[in-house]
Design goal:
Elements lengths: L1 E6 L4 H11 L6 E4 L10 H13 L5 E6 L3 H7 L7 E3 L3 H9 L5 E5 L5 H13 L6 H15 L1
Parallel strand pairs: 1-2, 1-3, 3-5, 4-5
Helix pairs in contact: 1-5, 2-3, 4-5
Amino acid sequence: MRIFFACDHGASELKQHLMAYLAKRDRVELVDLGCDGTTSVDYPDYAATLCKAVLASAGDRGVLLCGTGIGISIAANRFAGIRAALCHDAYTARLCREHNDANVLVLGGRTTGPAVAEEMLDLWLDTPYAGGRHQRRLDKIESNAREV
């Protein structure tokens, strides 16, 4: 599985930390889509690049980061087929996969510590989608996106 990473200037340190952490895992290919420093950039540009990459490759996932995670998650969820979940703890990271089949994990570089981010990333990668009653809801989300 490929895991795409992108962030704005508010989360480049956490992005680099998480990519180094995941580099130890088997069977994952990490793709860094930027940004690489603390010079101010526009998060919608990085969200768009990552979302297009995830949508173009079935089964791959993405991790987006900005200062709080709020702006970049809003930008990502404008793309039909993207289910970007802003998570703050292990519980939400697990359930966003189990119930919502989130294909993009969103974290705040200024609000999430490295150890918590590692735990959330592990849960998000290792938790399977439960399907069942949850699929009906995801189908409605996709149907609504086509109506707009």
